[in-house]
Amino acid sequence: MGHRANYVVRRNGNVEIFYSHWGALGLLKDFFWGEEVALAMVRECNETPRLLDNVWCEGAALVDYDAKRLLLFGCEVPGEDRGAFLELFPLTWPDWTVEYATGGIPQIAAAIGFDPAPLLQMDTHIPAELDAIIPCDPVKPGPGVLLTIASGGGWFDTLADHEPLEVLGAGPALVRHVADWPRIDATVRVARDLARGGAVIVPALGELHFWLGQEVWDAAGWVAPHWAGWTVRQDATDWRCHFELTGRPVAPLPARWADDVIASLEDVPFDGAAVMRLEVEQMARDGEKNLEVNPAAVRHARPALADARKLEVVARVRRHLRRSG
Questions:
Q1: If DSSP states are collapsed to H, E and C, what string results for the chain?
Q2: Residue 222's pLDDT is what?
Q3: What is the pTM of this model?
Q4: What is the pLDDT of residues 277-290, one digit of tens each?
Q5: Where are the domains of the chain?
Q6: Residue with the larger pLDDT of the pair 238 and 115
């Protein structure tokens, strides 16, 4: 039980690694408040000699003072749009480069000069058989892979009912396979709310551009051999690349998105350790005698900042969203 995360700090070439049992849940929001708040939170956690592997690590952040770079990933991005949320970070991390680690914890390891190979405990992907790749219901589509293909001077959008890497593993034969599928309108609702990943395919140029909703180390290195002779790139961090890469205007975020972000920042943060303590106390009251609790599970660090500071940051975000919206 938990949402395990590693926090890494590099300064003057020295690397420190910390462990958080609950930190992956809302990690981007926790690190949003700026360098000083983030570092104070990190130092409240237990230091550890090693990184988690890609099975157990659900989130991580590298605060690299040497490169003025923040590299991070985690679950539950406010408003569900990690790319758009990351664009707000310059408000609180001025002069820092902020990037999403699409490769997960192995990418964090590589960024500090560690060998990522020992962290790859789950990296097997099996290409899907073409017959197993079917379209989503065009009337009531479920989660799938958004495929956008250059065709006849325009673009053909469809949604595959499968996992992204398994679909991309089908190779160029995928283009012909989906040619007669129902077309969909690649609206924000479809791209944002339903796509678990996607690809923009330009057969005439032999180009495949893709993105994934989950973190996978060297995904392009896995996909490229299945598209021999093609240019294969993992270009973006979220669904908006579909609009950017095809030259179509980037569809505006839903009006509620700004409200979602503000509400998320104002929300009382989830405290997994407190929940765990309550559950343990309840089990003890119920007569459970043999209780063994991981000490890390009942220790949890959250961003600590004064209410006035929090209100000031939220007001700044609100003004920024109002101007840009």
A1: CCCCEEEEEEECCEEEEEEECCCCECHHHHHCCCHHHHHHHHHCCEECCCCCCCCCCCEEEEEECCCCEEEEECECCHHHCHHHHHCCHHHCCCCCEEEECCCHHHHHHHHCCCCCHHHCCCCCCCCCCHHHCCECCCCCCCCEEEEEEEECCEEEEEEECCCHHHHHCCCCHHHHHCCCCCCCCCCHHHHHHCEEEEEEEEHHHCEEEEEECCCCCCHHHHHHHHHCCCEEEECCCCCCHHHHHCCCCCCCCCCHHHHHHHHHHHCCCCCHHHHHHHHHHHHHHCCCCCCCCCHHHHCCCCCCCCHHHHHHHHHHHHHHHHHHC
A2: 93
A3: 0.84
A4: 677 677 767 777 77
A5: 1-123+271-325, 130-245
A6: 115
